[in-house]
Automatic annotation (TrEMBL), chains A, B:
Limits of the Flavin reductase like domain: 15-162
Domain of life, per lineage: Bacteria
Keywords attached to this entry: Flavoprotein, Oxidoreductase
EC number, UniProt record: 1.5.1.-
Keyword Iron applies: no
EC class: oxidoreductase
Signal peptide start and end residues: none
Pfam families reported for this sequence: Flavin_Reduct
Protein name (record): Flavin reductase family protein
GO molecular function ontology, one term from the record: oxidoreductase activity
Record-linked InterPro entries: Flavin_Rdtase-like_dom, Flavoredoxin, Split_barrel_FMN-bd
Cofactor(s), by name: FMN
Matching SMART domains: Flavin_Reduct
Amino acid sequence: MDTHIAPVTLEKAYRLINHGPTVLVSATHQGVDNVMAAAWCCALDFAPPKLTVVIDKATRTRELVEKSASFVIQVPTVAQLQLTHDVGTSSLLQEADKLERAGVELFHIDGYDAPFVAGCSAWLACRLIPEPHNQTTYDLFIGEVTGAWSDTRVFKDGHWHFEDASPELGSLHYIAGGHFYAIGAALEADTDK
Amino acid sequence: MDTHIAPVTLEKAYRLINHGPTVLVSATHQGVDNVMAAAWCCALDFAPPKLTVVIDKATRTRELVEKSASFVIQVPTVAQLQLTHDVGTSSLLQEADKLERAGVELFHIDGYDAPFVAGCSAWLACRLIPEPHNQTTYDLFIGEVTGAWSDTRVFKDGHWHFEDASPELGSLHYIAGGHFYAIGAALEADTDK
């Protein structure tokens, strides 16, 4: 595991995705690993931390999530722009070497089944909370976050530090086609008002 | 209505929130208007466009949404940083003049019940799709988008143009406390790869 990676307390885990980044979803089942991009992932609760993610019926990842009941949500970086686009547009169902072609490197953390994507800025290991109606009707999956980690060069002590980190560590915010935006400037509202 | 506001086709409406901005939720019932901030709002489907938004039981807005079955999701701008923070931290239950104090100006669009917040960059009028289990268990509300509009100075012809617009029109991405980030630089992945 990269020396920059450190655990994030579960009570601060929601902050890893609170700013609405496009994420990568990874899962494994019976020896098959997969990773897809998802722009539609969102925090759902603070304690225990939960999140939602929309996973289309056409994806191979969906079957892995449903069968293993676990997945990892990770926050890719500006340096992973092309990787994020590529795992979001190709499918393991058509391309058996999808992950290799996209340059995805996986690693594992003891105690967690699903694989983690190297080079991201944050990782949230999730246990699927089965909600068949949501899954069938809306492709909506709910996960409880059971472990969280960050690259301490950009998220440390419960806070993102995009403004002090390399721009390559910024988060990606997908629109459509090949169009993304990076996260931008830090702004502070007056909290004493 | 501001002369910069123009309708967005429903098939492109998801793009207004695809990059994960913090939004404002507005609703009205029996003469009571309210507006709250929500970082946990996410696209759910393309056609018809749907979205999810988490609305805590402690908010006054929740009751207005439940009773009127309609609400507006709007994308506030960097110029509305303090307004967004203020409507997210004060409650109409404690402060009857909440909206006035936060500087919220409302306007209406014919055919839609819920009020719209002036000065935002995008608006999505939604009809509540009742899902009592999600609402009760997760504070999770699903809306079908029935109308969408944008400020054409920053979203036009189905695309955001943050890179060419005034930085004051950028979207806000909330973390915690008074900390936000603005949307940043445009990035293009290679789509021919």
